[in-house]
Amino acid sequence: MFPLLLLLCLPPALAAVDCVNEYRNGYQVRLSIKTALGDQAYDWNESELFLFRATIAFAMRKFTKTEAYEVSNIVVCNQTPRVSFWFIVTSPENPAQAISKNIVEQAVRESRNRINNAFLLTDKSLEFLGIPPTLAAPINPDTPPWLIVFGVVIGAVCAGIVALLIMSFVKRRRGKKAKEVPEEEDQAKGTDKAVTGETFEDRNGVYNLGFADDDRFTQL
Prior knowledge:
220 residues; alpha+beta; four-stranded antiparallel beta sheet; 7 helices; 4 strands; disordered N terminus
């Protein structure tokens, strides 16, 4: 019975030793729950710690695309009352072997938003010291950028062509009006000359039959 209990207690002890001695493969976590949530802040306890370990196991499963990682593979040590601790991830095949720090970092970065949301925190209030904050994913427009540029260029060309056509039409119309105005002026001048000539002839002795009888009766 005693050997069996010894075997059951041995893996956690080895894991604890790994957490203390494997700082090169571990990360320190610091939470600012009261600063972030104020009056709605919750107490950090063993249940919250279990949730943290579960989220890290989820991140490892998602990144490595394997379901071998369990909560027991996330080992936590050096906890402080101000909610700070270290953690390492152990291999599912060998609990005494720590997973490379680089792999853990990539897994955390890939699932950073899910981890933050689980604790109602952000990158600033849930810090993984040594892992830079996750940048927002770039927005990919539905329309490719080159198609947008092409549409703008084509629109500018079409607008230039329409402007040239309108300008040429306006110039032609103005030219026609400029030609019509002198012709009308010449016609008006000719009419004035004809009228003036007839009046001048009447005034210079052109015999007007309308006054012939009047002169005859006047003499009588």
